[in-house]
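Summary for the steering committee. The consortium agreed at its last meeting that each partner would contribute one worked example illustrating the joint modelling workflow. Our contribution is presented below. We chose a case with several input lines so that the handling of multiple components could be demonstrated. No manual editing was applied between input and output; the record is shown as generated.
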Amino acid sequence: MSASQKYEIDESLPYKAIAIGGSAGSFQVVTKILSSLPTDFELPIMMCLHRLRHVRNGFTEALNIKSTINIEEPTDKEPIKKGKIYLAPANYHLCVELGNTFALSTEELFNNSRPAIDYMIQTAAHNYRHKLIAILLSGANKDGALGMKAASEKGALTVVQDPAECLIDTMPTSALKITKINHTLSVDKIIDLLLYIDQKIKKKK
Amino acid sequence: MQQEIELAQLKKITDIIQKRFDFDFGNYAMSSFKRRIQRVIEIYKYASIDALIDRLNDADHKFFQEFLSEITVNVTEMFRDPTFWRELKESIIPNLLLNDREINIWHAGCSSGEEVFSMAILLTEMNLLGKAKIVASDVDNAILAKAREGKYPIKNMEVNQKNYERYEGSFLLQKYYKEEAGKAIMDKELVKNVEWREHNLVSGGSFAKFDLILCRNVMIYFNQQLQNTVLKTFHESLHKYCYLAVGSKESLIWCEIANKFVVVNNEEKIYKKVKD
Ligand SMILES: C[S@@+](CC[C@H](N)C(=O)[O-])C[C@H]1O[C@@H](n2cnc3c(N)ncnc32)[C@H](O)[C@@H]1O
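What follows is the complete predicted structure of the assembly.
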């Protein structure tokens, strides 16, 4: 890493999307991240956060109070676009199809979850490969670990929240156990990394 | 975890299935189709995807029926999205009543029948069951047999009851079933006039005209192209000014033929055919 480089990232800036997974203890973290992004943030963000299965409304609205960019629950086959933040809807798995569109599914629970973080990150990694940034936050089960493994194998930039800082660290710890993760960071540093990449992309334009 | 399935292998599978069983999975959404194939490999404990390919090449139709059952996603609930069902009760069905004719309803992709029982209960509580003619179809014969049977694990009834309460049903769901050996046995009177029909949306086309079509959480397993095709079938199968309801996270706006429909309720994804 040269002195001018703050974080080890792919300096050719191939990044096209960010996928964030979180569960127990991640709500505050996510709102902190979303309240820190510039309104013209350069990359689309998709999020899969464990939520009540049978409550369709309220969660996105609650997140939107703090977010600088409007968060939407995508509909099936919606194209993934820059400048948007997407949240997996209640009781549906959110997946990425080749060609940068979303696909929803009502398949069985995975890791006792629907939406499952693994499905979102695995399919995002399959589509975006090294152009993906995958981030896993605090949580109480192992959902997301397989996703992070897939992301890592495809050459994506992988980040987990520092277990020492997590309210419940099972999720990042499970990922760290089964795959190589590029960065283990505190929330503040995750935000810093995202802003750093955003700045770099802006400068390159 | 097994090795990741490659796109080329999926293509090989869909080609073989087309050739041996005349069934076209080529336009299914690949993200979920891939997971379903993975799942089949795990269930049958195949050593590799090639073992599955060989098995399909046997052209064993009985095996294909089982395979089809595993590939399709049958997860469903009664009164899924309670506010949708309330909208049917308060607005859509009353509107159809104005036509002063029998109400023809098609459940396309009815799975194990929970949606059909929900409709029958809704109609019963509106005192309209006798005025409606329901066709319920699915491509998966095994799941249709389950729907016909109307027996559900009693543990599922908890979610169903909760949905029914949120829908603001008139009674308790228990009114419509009796419990026997861990199963909820649904009241057969509810579905005695339902026509259960094996129908493939990929190739089946239109077979009658309806006033209301429900196709919820089915087209999410299709790609855009197939969604367009199926939407044409629905367009053809609807009387003018009649309704199509899709799942709460589906939208017609990505479809070619969308301009022949208007949105009646965007939150509940109910559309009305306005042009022939
Ligand atoms: C997730 S279930 C939907 C059940 C119910 N409509 C609901 O929303 O809860 C999807 C159903 O679509 C059926 N299906 C899949 N492909 C089909 C096809 N080509 N033609 C007809 N039905 C199909 C499956 O067998 C499955 O029962």
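Strands of chain B lie at 103-108, 132-138, 151-153, 177-180, 183-186, 195-198, 210-215, 238-246, 261-265, 270-273. The interface with chain A takes residues 1, 4, 7, 29-32, 35-36, 73, 75-76, 81, 83, 159, 162-163, 166, 217, 219-221, 223-224, 227, 247-251, 254 of chain B (CB under 8 Å).
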